[in-house]
Amino acid sequence: MTLYLSFYFLSATLILTPSHDPEGKGVSLSSLPSKQPGEQPGGEEGDKPLSSAWQAALGATSTMDKEKQERKRVVRKPIKVVERPERALFCLGLKNPIRSLCITIVEYKAFEYLILLTIFANCIALAVFTPFPFGDSNAVNATLEKVEYIFLVIFTLECVMKIIAYGFILHPGAYLRNTWNLLDFIIVVIGVVSTALSNLMKDGFDVKALRAFRVLRPLRLVSGVPSLQVVLNSILKAMIPLLHIALLVIFVIIIYAIIGLELFSGKMHKTCFDNVTDQIALDDPHPCGDAGYQCTGVGQVCRLYWEGPNYGITNFDNFGLAMLTVFQCVTNEGWTNVLYNVNDACGNQWPWIYFLSLIILGSFFVLNLVLGVLSGEFSKEREKAKARGDFHKLREKQQIEEDLRGYLDWITQAGEFLHFSFVTQKSIHYYNQQTLSDQLGL
Asked: Where in the cell is it found (predicted)?
């Protein structure tokens, strides 16, 4: 920059200093002929056509003027910048040194990594902490209680600095306008309140319930890890489609519960009894029936008054238990045991159709719709997150290009000025020489 300024002042001095002729009269830019390049002589007698050097100088000047005018016509697209409120907490402006410092710290990448490491360390401390009954403790727990104050101070400072940097809640982009920041704020407030109450009211207040909220601190990882935000946002966005699928699942369960109520009601309370002792004769009781399992032991008879499989829960005696049994089959949890019990009670010719269709329709088809919805929403959120990341990168790139373009424009204008000064000085010098030659008759 110093070199360019030196050229600038040197050129200005050369232009403004008159070139002396033999008679002592200086020649300046204002005294030069005002003819256009290529203009032929005419009018007064004695006019001469301009020399080729003078025409080239004036042509270069007009070309530079046209380039400047075309450059002014170019409309550059405005670059969006991060919008921050003019004031935070009603008193801290953008130029406030405290707020500027907070903005610099919270937007520094190393600060984010520090918070993530603190959260991981807090999770490890929560896992190592061993609760004892009756308020007992040990040396490890006592050390962890002291370390807890360090974690609380770090999280509180982070919360305060972000509130100072972005504002609290009253404007777009404020700290509490972000859902994950709201979760962080609630966790910090609960930690501060529980710590304050435990120190101020040691004998009259039990803060164990509030301390239980410490388990929420690992959720702060969501606010620092974008991939976790994508997963949770996709689950939240899928709630309404999942509700529709849940209604479809309930409809299928109701239909099959009604069918099971009609086909298998009261059929699962027979088992093999000892005819002498009138006690259940099987070590592992299961239903029996005329078309199903036959009691083949000596003195055994298939008789009623058994509560049924699974302590009388797995059956189709009423609508509620039928829905519960169908739901167990839909979840694929022990549905084969239900099928075997029904086969023992009613035979194995037709019940398999009921259960096979239930598994195909209710489990393989309907429940897989849940995975489809979650997968679709996850893909959408991932694309949105990728688009946001690309937008931020593009914005930073455009900002850098805009700054570089400004520097290049400044350098170009300085170079054009130096070139114009050089050509003009050469033209004046040549014109003075021509004038001197004409006067001397050379």
From this structure: Membrane
